[in-house]
Amino acid sequence: MFLRHISVLGALILALGNAPAHATLNDFASSPRVPEPQRIDPHEIAYRTPTATQTHLILSLGDRRVYVYHNRVLQSSYPVAVGKPGSETPLGTFQVFQMVKDPIWESPFTGEIIPAGVPQNPLGPRWIAFWTDGNNAIGFHGTDSPQSIGRAESWGCARMLDDDAIALYDQVQIGTTVTVIP
To answer: What does the alpha-carbon distance between residue 128 and residue 138 come to, in Å, rounded to a whole number?
Structure first.
């Protein structure tokens, strides 16, 4: 604890030493401690991608959209719902590893199985998985809750309107790169 106080005191002295002569401690107390994160441009990510001749998905959590690029050219984009606090959609670069038409859903909480094609199926008509921990998977899918699109309300997946999930499914394949950005 003592070393922590020394470090804080040292940082304050260093900050005061670099401050203008008229600065007070209140100026430091009210100033932001962490700089605002810069928005990451999905188009810049697509341009820097080494897979220039392939399809690449950029899932922007801040924009709440998935952007579809082919040969570094934007082909389409779709609104999505993303993971809610405590179940955030993972950041990073992944690959599509599973695609299912008319998926059956099994609740990870109750084990209840909801068949394909019924309105209560939370996966809708398509499932495109890009992340797994070995037990659970996260991916793009349709939804039985279209009002959630544009919000942070999922368990980590990217929910889409059913027609958009079908359209996205037709543009990707196993191995398609998915980059998730803040």
So the answer is: 8
Question: Which candidate, 145, 177, 176, places its Cα nearest to that of 162?
Answer: 145
Please, which residues have CB within 8 angstroms of residue 70's CB and are 6 or more apart in sequence? Answer: 54, 55, 56, 171
Mean pLDDT of 72-97: 96
Instruction: Round to whole Å and give the CA distance between 32 and 8.
Output: 16
What pLDDT, on the 0 to 100 scale, is given for residue 179? 97
pLDDT at 29 over 50: no
**What positions carry a catalytic annotation?**
141, 157
Closest of 68, 61, 39 to residue 181, by C-alpha: 61
- Tokens linked to 59: 């899932």
The two most distant CA atoms of the chain are separated, in Å, by 70
Q: Considering only 24-28, 41-45, 98-102, 125-129, which range has the smallest mean pLDDT? A: 24-28
